[in-house]
Amino acid sequence: MWQGRSLAGEDFGARDPTEGEISSNFGAKVLGNADTSHIIRGPPGLENLVGLANRRCKACEGGDVKAMDEPTAYTLRNQVPGWQVKKDANGALSLQQEWKVRNFQAGLELFKRIGEIAEAEGHHPDLHLEGFNRVTADLSTHSVGGLTENDFIMAAKINKLNVSDLTPKPKARFWA
User: Fold this and answer.
1) Are 57 and 121 within 8 A, CB to CB?
2) Which of the pair, 16 or 59, is modelled with greater confidence?
């Protein structure tokens, strides 16, 4: 936590609660979900220097690449908002993201856009179209049976896709 400190003059807008706030049990009165993911953005331009989306996937076959452990996966997950770390019945980790799209054709178009990134990186996710409008992408490195940095690089690149033309338009609200 930054505790009110700033980096390069930027204010991150978050702080730790004070002793008084903690003792007042203020958290019991807050609406929302404690598991909400928050995006903390660094100074402008930082992502262009160190972001996962600017890295390239590396070949894993025949190398000494090992699947990452759960704490490392959760640390990297914070860099790919919207993605969840999942564990299968065998304990293998994967990254998963789900999108609700307008219709079947929009789902196929999202497959195409993700596929273009996958081909360029040589790292292919499992894609699922369920119902007619729910697209799910599962990322894992099959050759190591779990997650590697490549999966997070792919998730970051997928996050940069503009999918606003594929998702349902928000309904007009008639109340505040």
Assistant:
1) yes
2) 16
